[in-house]
Amino acid sequence: MQYGKYLWGVLQGDFGHDFNGNSVSTLIATALPYTVVLALSAFVLKLIIGVCLGVWAGLRQGKFPDKFNLFFTIFFLAVPGFIIAYFSQYLFGIKLHWLPISGVRMGFPIAFIMPAMVLALETASPLARLSRTSLVDVMRSDYIVTATAKGIGPQRIMWVHALRNAFMPVVTYLGLSIAALLGGSVLIETIFNLPGLGGTLNRAIETQNGPVVVGVSIFLLLFYLVAALIVDLLYPIIDPRVRHA
Question: Domain extents for the chain?
Fold first, then answer.
């Protein structure tokens, strides 16, 4: 009965109360804006870095851009995010004094530049590799060869025919990565002392505050499911073949 009442409350936006009597929904609502700002900022930076690097490498296979993309991908996949975060704090915060190393006292965007960049670099490498691989596969397709044989210019082939189809797997990854950024912000928010969902979840784990852990986890799961649904709805818009089918 208790479990059924809890699920019914979740459907109504009520995630229960923590051990101190505070509403978990209120805690989520208070922390959510900080996480959304961080996740969206990191998403924009990730999109710019990953797609630009991937397209640059895909158009110049075997040359310096392609090799640089491979190095970028391997490096940021191999180096843990907390190492990048601590190095950024030491370099840009302590040594150069360009950016604050923690907290939100400086406000947006200053306080979010460093954590957003760290989170973006940590997650941009798979996007760069995926963009490059998808573009290379599309450029080898029969319809691209046919369009080239008909005398269509390379710029039109790239922007009208190739990129649109190459972005299908990229859109899938981007849509799901938005929700993943919310979950991945747990470590970054903790290191940079941001009062978002990640910091709230980490403090709840440290204090063994179960209702908050469960509430935040369920909220992140629901957000992930909504993001997956939006990606499915975008397919027919991006690829007419899906709509016709």
Answer: 28-244
pLDDT digits (tens, 9 = 90+) for 198-221: 888 888 888 888 889 999 888 888
Q: What angle do CA 152, 158, 164 make, to 5 degrees?
A: 120
Cα–Cα distances (Å) from 4 to 8, 9, 14, in that order, read 6, 9, 13
The answer to whether residues 214 and 158 touch, using CB atoms and an 8 Å cutoff, is no
Alpha helices in 192-238 (DSSP H): 197-206, 210-238
Fold for 28-244, please state it: MetI-like fold (1.10.3720)
- Decide: residue 135, CB within 10 A, 0-12 exposed, 13-18 middle, 19+ buried: buried
172 φ, ψ (degrees, to nearest 5): -60, -50
Token duo for residue 221: 């799961």
Contact 69, 132 (CB under 8 A): yes
Specify the pTM: 0.80
